[in-house]
Amino acid sequence: MYKPGGTIAEALRRIQNKDYVLPAIQREFVWKPEQIERLFDSLMQGYPFGTFLFWRVPAETSGKFKFYDFVRRYHQRDAAHCPELGTLHHQSVTAVLDGQQRLTALNIGLRGSMAMKQPNKWWTNPDAFPERVLRLDLLAPVRPDDDGAVYRFRFLSDEQAAKDETAHWFKVPDIMATEDVIDLNDMLVDAGFSGEALKAALRLLSRLYRVIHTDPLVHYYEEDTPNLDRVLNIFIRLNSGGTVLSYSDLLLSIAVAQWTKIDARSEIHRLVDELNRMGTGFAFSQDFVLKAGLMLADIASVGFKVENFTSDNMAKLEAGWPAIRSALVRTVELAASFGLNGQTLRADSALLPIAYYLYRRNAPENYVSHTQFASDREMIRNWLIRSLLKASGIWGSGLDTLLTALREAMQAGPVQAFPVEELRRVMSVRGKSLAFEPAEIEDMLHMEYGDRRMFALLSLLYPFVDLRNNFHMDHVFPISRFGAAKLRRAGYDDEEAERLAHRASQLPNIQLLEGAANVEKRASLPEEWLARYKADEASRADYLDRHVLGTLPVDLADFDRFYEERRQALRGRLSALLEGAAAEQLQKAAE
User: Rounded to whole angstroms, what are the CA distances from 98 to 43, 82, 224, 258, 390?
Assistant: First the structure.
């Protein structure tokens, strides 16, 4: 039978007092700001709130388990994980088995804030994560929008709220501090409300007050067994029937319960955070780390299947964790040295065979930088770039079978050098060849700026650019010159303008530049910029040759000639780099 659990305000006070906690088997908070806004709108509309499943842990046994607090001030980079609680000696607690996401959403909306990364800003920039508080627009009409939302809730910074002159944004956390509904009227009068606007705003806030402080919306079922195995079984059965949890979440929950010496949850999350801070920033998830754990620990299958997560397998994973962790750090350091990051690494799984190789050879800390390993690193880079370039997607369907086969191929051979040929053979047998047909190379010549394969292709064409430093994918002829209005003023009709703008974003007009050089270049025409950048004729000639630029266009009318000539030159360069019968066939076809 479900029991009445009181009001939302009472539930949040229990969270604040550490009466409601999260067991280690729970996953992280994953809701987006829009989902929290939607939840508050649903509450205001009187929609069912759902029920909760609690695990009552008595004071005499609570010290045996690890618990976590609820997220309150969420920060996507710096505070995305549930805070650890110390050992709770002689304190009875209620652990939330089902309902964590809803309770955390309420905790953030009524007691905290969210700081999500803004687009077009680096992860390393602290200004990329403005703190935003949930607010309710007291001037918005109470009527459904296209999505059925009636009340206008938004996460906004103080600056955003102050700039919006069409709204009056009430901070939702202020309702938690309101002791009596009568206080709302004085609050609104002090804010400048009067007349009909005062009445409408008071109706809104009174409803919000009742939803939070008065209506008994929380209902729960309570399990009081001290047996962790039973609790884990309930948790998995509850969450594995649909899409509420991924199998990686289940794996993490089981690992947490079965590792005896290492705190699996904090270890895995710390590693994910560390990997994501490398270079210019990556976007790995716990799925990547857990898949790597299955692969590197030589567990029979790398698939996220519950039957793979036996106590023996988890013990094996825990025993090998320090070496597995080290290999993953080396692997991502290596990927960063290739210039890859969260935007340019098209498939995280492509790193797993590399990680397994580095794990087997016990790669030292200086593997990424010492000249002793330079040729090995270059073999890895070439293999990786080729796999990322394949339009068909090497790392898509059949991934688990492919990874298992690649691991078997590496197990059978020596570890002195990266086994490129063995891996190519295994991949080819499974229809994932790294050879490039003529049509594939032709497709690359039409690749557009923004394609996630573009960086991999440019890094292949520009091996002389130090990708460990800041670099830019740059338009040779400035893209700003191809705006529709500018092209019309230059005498091009709409059809011609569209064709030119399309060509301007394709490979023949893209190059890879050191960041400082690109900042200097900006919107300059290529010929006049190069005359400034390389003062003497010999340096300019060398630059043109290395960048496969030919004769630079002097103006827009010369762009088509430049585009065609460079496409031909790049076809030859790619044919030489992606050697083999396919490249030779392409050259003959072009001739």
Answer: 19, 16, 14, 21, 42
Residue 517's pLDDT band, with cuts at 50, 70 and 90, is low
Torsion of CA 532, 536, 541, 547, to 10 degrees: -40
Residue 540 · residue 530 · CB < 8 Å: yes
Computed over every residue of the chain, the mean pLDDT equals 87
Contact indicator for 172, 208 with CB cutoff of 8 Å: yes
Strands 133-137 and 169-171, bridge-based pairing: antiparallel
Tell me how far the alpha carbon of residue 360 is from its chain's centroid: 28
Whether pLDDT at 196 is above 90: yes
pLDDT band at 528 (very low <50, low <70, confident <90, very high): confident
Q: In what order do the strands lie in the sheet with 169-171?
A: 153-156, 133-137, 169-171
What is the reported pTM? 0.66
Two structure tokens written together for 116: 């999500």
Q: Distance of CA 514 to CAs 78, 459, 541, Å?
A: 30, 12, 18
CB 388 within 8 A of CB 381: no
Q: Kind of pairing, strands 52-57 and 93-98?
A: antiparallel
Q: Helix (H, G, I), strand (E, B), or coil: what is residue 136?
A: strand
